[in-house]
């Protein structure tokens, strides 16, 4: 049950050469809290993240990676009120079965969702018109 933010934070800690206890002491939290984040049991608080970014002196690239990991690790989603009934039904059906879906099926659904972005990125190509040779009419 490891989330993308859990993996990111663990990798950053290891790159810094710190144990969980050392990181916890550095940012002013308990080691158990750092462990719970790395295991995906808890989401990091905003205060923890601010302290982490400041103490480990994240560069702009690391801050961007952290933001993307946080976005990918959201646990709650809210549907906008204007979505269709089909969207509500689909999301609820998916939620009911999400933990029982085979990894291949999850990957397929994920790839299908990404297809929309690929379709937008590709230029629209018009088919070339093939002209057939026409025989000239012979006057008799």
Distance, first to last CA: 85 Å
Shape: elongated
The percentage of residues in β strands lies in under 5%
Largest sheet report: none
Count of DSSP-assigned helices: 7
- Detail the poorly predicted runs: none
Mean pLDDT reading: 88
**Nearest-angstrom radius of gyration?**
26 Å
* Proportion of residues in helical segments: 55-70%
Structural class assignment: mainly alpha
What's the number of extended β-strand segments? Answer: 0
- Oligomeric state of this protein: single chain
Written as H for each helix and E for each strand, in order along the chain, the element string is HHHHHHH
Describe this structure in words.
- The protein is mainly alpha-helical and 140 residues long.
- Helix content is 59%, strand content 0%.
- The protein has 7 helices and no strands.
- Helix 2 crosses helix 3 (31-38).
- The longest helix has 19 residues, at 103-121.
- The chain is elongated, with a radius of gyration of 26 Å.
Which descriptors would you attach to this protein?
single chain; 140 residues; mainly alpha; 7 helices; 0% strand
Compose a concise summary of this entry:
The protein has helices at about 5-15, 20-25, 30-40, 45-55, 60-70, 85-95, 105-120. With about 140 residues, it is mainly alpha-helical.
In terms of topology, how is this protein built?
Elements (H helix, E strand, L loop, with lengths): L3 H12 L4 H8 L3 H8 L7 H10 L4 H13 L12 H13 L5 H19 L19
Helix pairs in contact: 1-5, 2-3
